[in-house]
Amino acid sequence: MNSNNNNKKSLNDNLINIGIVILCIIMIISLIVSFIVWKRTNDLTFVISGFICVVGILFNIYLLSRAKSKKKE
Question: I need a labelling partner for 56 at 20 to 30 A (CA). Which of 13, 64, 65, 67 fits?
């Protein structure tokens, strides 16, 4: 029974780590795309929308990290 519980924790930790990595990749790509589009169009709204997207992704990373630390306790 205890071994099964450890496997679930390990699987949850792996899924959280994968989620954090995917969110980091999306964050980097969205920053690059928003700056490229901003340079081509000279419209500041693309930088603002990119910044809002990055803030949302950072908040999701924070929530995933917090959930991971709570499960370890």
Answer: 13
